[in-house]
């Protein structure tokens, strides 16, 4: 048997690629990596999550492409872990598995009316405008006037910005064709951003909120007296607040002072408010909210607490954008509350089994630490996991191939008639998408159905 280490990486987003890159950086280790993804396309949230008008952020793909050029790397797209292949299969073919599957679900508000037509998760909307095959058939009623986005993170700002941009601006991006057409006809006038806490606690980044100063088709307002900070928030701002928080406040002040002629749309930042009910006859018609006050906790942080002061607004669309949540994987422990796989520095920990550590299973990225940070944060996270894995091999005196029964997963995939997509196949699709985009002056035109993707690959092979 070949004396190299064989590692399976599940998920081809940033965490999976950074882990692969770190494995290949180990000069004294002979390592081969097979990466699996349930979609025919790699790069996870870089393709399906990063906003289409943020092409610069997507340039990290260049790094992942370089990693994929390593002759010890193989990509198996269109192969779903838990459906096409299982943990028990992979443990027969690989010395170890790294799960970097991200956070595929999202948190719910848990309020009455949340399931009404017109109430959606930001995950669905983001997946839809980014052409993710899972969300291409979603329908959003953009004929309404008032949209509410609940949450004050970067995803909420992405959703608000995409709703606020003009068709001409969106037409220069790689937004899905059907989304561009639907947004072209949008009647939305008011886009509310609702934060349960104040501007000092907002989770968005200055670079994201700064873009709101330059929207050609939307005025931006900060509702109420949110920027007249309470004594506690002022103290936090003056003492312990991060540079980013200080910048956020500066930008929000600029926004609230700017006096521009009225534009077609209006983005309204509403701080210190929480939705308590969504009302409507079969579909969203109104949103009921409560004003919050800040209450200091024992650890010094400020939490929102409902007051008696309620408000009701007309609403046609509501997006909850209050954080992603991981999904459990078969035969792996799972912490329901954090939506992560319990682990110690990336090594999977059987919390129900005396916290014993699994020597051959590791996690990286959001399924390891939860949905936080920017793309680059996954690098350090994956590096930690890879080092823990290699240290474990050494400490436990595990030899390459020691636990492996079979040589090459390809025979298993073929025996199951799986129509897998290699990295070379993906490159064919990539070129096709980029070329058809360029013909329209766009960075790419995405294919959004898996069968269409496979058809193009078959034709171009
Ligand atoms: P996030 O940054 O964690 O923000 C979640 C927001 O939801 C917070 O404002 C939070 O408020 C609020 N929230 C949570 N539970 C709530 C509840 N029950 N009711 C009302 N509000 C609630 O999550 P995200 O926006 O989904 O982003 C995920 C990660 O991706 C973040 O690390 C983000 O920075 C990153 N990302 C980055 C970019 C970029 O760099 N351009 C773009 C998109 C996403 P509290 O603070 O009060 O909990």
Question: Can you describe this structure?
Answer:
The relative contact order is 0.18. Helix 15 packs across helix 16. The chain is built from 16 helices and 18 strands. The radius of gyration is 24 Å and the shape is globular. A 7-stranded mixed sheet has the order 3-2-1-4-18-17-16, sandwiched between helices. By secondary structure, the chain is of the alpha/beta class. The structure holds NADP nicotinamide-adenine-dinucleotide phosphate (NAP). NADP nicotinamide-adenine-dinucleotide phosphate binds next to helix 6. The site of NADP nicotinamide-adenine-dinucleotide phosphate (NAP) has 25 residues, from helix 6.
Q: In percent, how helical is the residue content?
A: 25-40%
In this entry the ligands are:
NADP nicotinamide-adenine-dinucleotide phosphate
Strand content: 15-25%
How many helical stretches? 16
State the total count of DSSP E strands. 18
Q: What is the mean predicted local confidence, pLDDT?
A: 96
Poorly predicted residue ranges: none
Shape: globular
Gyration radius, rounded: 24 Å
Strand-pairing-aware structural class: alpha/beta
Largest sheet: 7 strands, mixed
